[in-house]
Design goal:
Length: 156
C-alpha cells in the first residue's frame, strides 16, 4: 500500500470517527475557543467579521465538484446523512474533501480537526484539507472560501 493510500484510508477512518461524534451531538454545543474557527464563525454570524467572503463561497459544493475543480477524481469514503468525504491526489499533493448537510456540522468537524494542525479551505458547508496553504490557493480562486490553519500538534 502506498503512503498516499494510507493517508487516504487514515482520513476516511478519521471521518468515520468524526461522523459518529457528530451523530451523537457530542460537540455541537461546545463553546467557541478564542481564536478558533468556531469563534471566527460566531463573530461572522454576529456581523463582526471584517472580511467579506467571495460570492462563490456562499454556494455549497459537492465532493465531486470540488474534485473536478482540483482536476482529479474523488475516491469516496464516508457517505452518511450528515457528511460525505472523498480524497484525491494531484501534482500538488493529496486533498481531502468533506461536505456537510448543515453548517453546524462543518463547525463541529473543524473544532475537532484543527487541534491536529493542517490547512483547511473552508466554504459553505464544505472543507478541503491539504498539506500546505499554497496547495489550496488555486482551489480558493476557483471555489472561494477562506484558508484556516490548525494548531500545531507536536510532542507525539
Amino acid at each position: 500500500m502506498s503512503p498516499s493510500d494510507r493517508r487516504i484510508r487514515r482520513a476516511c477512518a478519521l471521518g468515520g470517527v468524526l461522523c459518529a461524534v457528530l451523530a451523537a451531538g457530542a460537540c455541537a454545543a461546545a463553546p467557541a475557543r478564542p481564536g478558533s474557527a468556531h469563534a471566527a464563525h460566531a463573530a461572522h454570524a454576529a456581523g463582526t467579521a471584517s472580511a467579506t467572503p467571495s460570492a462563490s463561497a456562499s454556494a455549497s459544493a459537492t465532493v465531486e465538484q470540488i474534485a473536478e475543480a482540483l482536476g482529479c477524481t474523488a475516491e469516496l469514503g464516508t457517505q452518511a446523512e450528515e457528511l460525505r468525504q472523498g480524497a484525491c491526489q494531484t501534482g500538488q499533493g493529496v486533498y481531502r474533501m468533506t461536505t456537510f448537510a448543515a453548517e453546524a456540522g462543518l463547525r463541529s468537524w473543524l473544532a475537532e480537526a484543527e487541534p491536529y494542525g493542517g490547512f483547511y479551505l473552508v466554504g459553505n458547508r464544505w472543507v478541503v484539507t491539504a498539506q500546505s496553504a499554497d496547495a489550496l490557493a488555486g482551489l480558493r480562486e476557483r471555489l472561494g472560501g477562506s484558508v484556516e490553519t490548525g494548531a500545531a500538534h507536536t510532542g507525539h
